Amino acid sequence: MLTPKEWLTDDHIDAAMHMLRRRRTDYPLTFPQKGVILSTFVTTMISSAWTSHKGPRKNFVWEDYILDYCRGVHKSQVFERWRGNEFIYFVLNLPEARHWVTLEVDIELWKINVYDYDSSVCHWTALELILKTWGELLPSLILATGEFPHNNQIMALTNRDITVLPKMHSTRATHDLVPKSTTRYIAIKKYYSIKICFTLD
Predict the structure, then answer these.
(1) C-alpha distances out from residue 75 to 17, 23, 80, 136, 181, Å
(2) What pLDDT was estimated at residue 199?
(3) Among 10, 67, 73, 76, which has the highest number of CB atoms less than 10 A from its own CB?
(4) Are 140 and 57 contacting, i.e. CB atoms less than 8 angstroms apart?
């Protein structure tokens, strides 16, 4: 991570995310924030399952091997149960831009907040297309987990018809909140009352 001119890989990101998950698990009184942190492995698996489906969305079914990561089955990897949490955090790679951004999924407000240290790298028009997929799949996944039966969007459904489940809208935080830097790094939102930055070069 400290080698000049080298890029961070998924393994580097996942190691950092694992440490954050373990810190919250080991010290829940010190870090009581109600949010889950996903690895790039899990988000890639989720995205691949959704985008590879060729039939009507109403026929899409989330498999248990994915839902297990939402239900707290994988305790050894410190993936906690989603129930009782208010946010989902993960780092998303933008391959064409060679850029990482952090996403905060606000389950109650049904929106995706994007934290990007350099908004000039990927224009919002291009980023919005990528986020459109997540804005569609996350509501479906959250419904399928059964972990949020009292969420306002889910309670409003009739017969659990996912075709009328509202999509999540996305916004990108301004540089007033996420300082812009000439050094390439990922800024992870103030998750445990501090900002954490991982240097890329």
Answers:
(1) 15, 14, 7, 28, 36
(2) 33
(3) 67
(4) yes
pTM listed for this prediction: 0.82
The token pair that represents 45 in the structure block: 């698996």
Q: What is the mean pLDDT of residues 162-176?
A: 85
Nearest alpha-carbon partner for 49 in 176, 150, 136 = 136
Say what the pLDDT of residue 56 is: 85
Give the orientation angle of helix 40-51 with respect to helix 124-145, to 10 degrees: 90
Q: Which residues pair with 196 in a beta bridge?
A: 188
Separation between Cα atoms, residue 116 and residue 180, nearest integer Å: 8
Work out the number of other CB atoms within 10 angstroms of the CB of residue 148. 19
Can you tell me the distance from the alpha carbon of 155 to that of 158, in angstroms, rounded to the nearest whole number? 8
Helix spans in the chain (H): 10-26, 40-51, 64-70, 124-145, 152-155
Instruction: Determine the Cα–Cα distance for residues 164 and 46; give it in Å rounded to an integer.
Output: 21
Note whether 185 and 195 are within 8 A (CB).
no
As a whole number, mean pLDDT of residues 96-125 equals: 89
Rounded to an integer, what distance in angstroms lies between the CA atom of residue 131 and that of residue 112?
Answer: 8
